[in-house]
Specification:
CATH architecture of the largest domain: 3-Layer(aba) Sandwich
Number of helices: 10
Bound molecules: adenosine-5'-diphosphate, magnesium ion
Radius of gyration: 18 Å
Shape: globular
Strand order of the largest sheet: 6-7-8-3-9-10
Length: 266
């Protein structure tokens, strides 16, 4: 049985079919890379799987259980967690407090057991390379630090499957390499991962499988080498690689500006 499965999943925004009848199965232990041009529907697709948005059509099954209409917090307690494209920490709290809060409300959380939540949060900060900043305000973090904090908060809920929306967005090359290392180590510790990313080289380096979405539809899926040599994929995506790279640089600037301004979506 697959860990997570969706069938004919669809999302319509008034006139726009943002996600169009996508079938996908994710097996326990996989790292799946989700790629596709800007506006392809990647974030919307993840929003449907995590319960951020209600589906228009189709079904989602998690460990054999139909979760299509299950609220997001309940999915979180079942073992699904996600990070956002633009980090969403509580800026009024310290880094440790942000992660502690997530631990208290996650699947293993017991609202009155604050001490063990703090202990768990400290452990996670260690794992995500943020321990040295535990007592600092989130406003002291760089983009890379904020992205790590997103991962730390998600991890505090003890996920079986983690959805990462552009975890490398806005990072420089060495920060991106560190982020990929973190993704790999989480996977080695048993977390199944679906991550959205623009940088093909990065996706290919860590993913067991790549899924390509274009205009809301699944265009291809398979091993990185099979997918990247697929002619249809090349036409829809790789053919535009130079403009995609340009857009990526542009997005990096926008993400940095949005993070600095506390904006929650770009
Ligand atoms: N809340 C929304 N309301 C209306 N349209 C939306 C909403 N969210 C996304 N869209 C549209 O759906 C399409 C897919 O967006 P998105 O999932 O963000 O793409 P991606 O993450 O692949 O860049 C885009 O055309 C976008 O403008
Ligand atoms: Mg997106």
């Amino acid at each position: 049985m697959s860990l997570l499965q969706c069938a004919k999943l669809g999302k319509r925004f008034s006139g726009l079919q943002a996600v169009d009848s996508i079938d996908l199965s994710i097996e326990k232990g996989e790292i799946v890379g989700l790629i596709g041009p800007n506006g392809a529907g990647k974030t919307t697709f993840v929003n449907l799987l995590t319960g951020e948005l209600p589906v228009t059509s189709g079904t989602i099954t998690y460990q054999g259980q139909d979760i299509t209409r299950m609220p997001q917090d309940k999915r979180n307690r079942l073992g699904l967690a996600r990070t956002f494209q633009v980090p969403r920490p509580f800026h009024s709290m310290t880094i440790l407090e942000n992660v502690t809060l997530a631990a208290l409300f996650g699947r293993a959380g017991r609202p009155h057991d604050r001490r063990s939540a703090v202990r768990k949060a400290a452990e996670i900060l260690e794992r995500t390379g943020l321990y040295g900043n535990a007592g600092a305000s989130t406003t002291t973090l760089t983009t890379a630090g904020l992205k790590r904090l997103e991962v730390a908060r998600a991890l505090a809920t003890e996920p079986d499957i983690l959805f990462l929306d552009e975890p490398l967005g806005g990072l420089n090359q060495s920060e991106a390499a560190d982020a990929l290392k973190l993704i790999r180590s989480l996977n080695e510790a048993g977390v199944t991962i679906l991550f959205i990313e623009h940088i093909i080289k990065a996706v290919s380096a860590v993913s067991h499988r790549i899924v390509v979405i274009a205009r809301g539809q699944k265009l291809a899926e398979g091993t990185p080498s099979a997918v990247l040599s697929n002619e249809e994929v090349k036409r829809a995506y790789l053919g535009n690689i130079s403009s995609a790279l340009e857009r990526n640089a542009q997005r990096r600037k926008q993400t940095n500006a949005a993070v600095a301004g506390g904006q929650t979506d770009v």
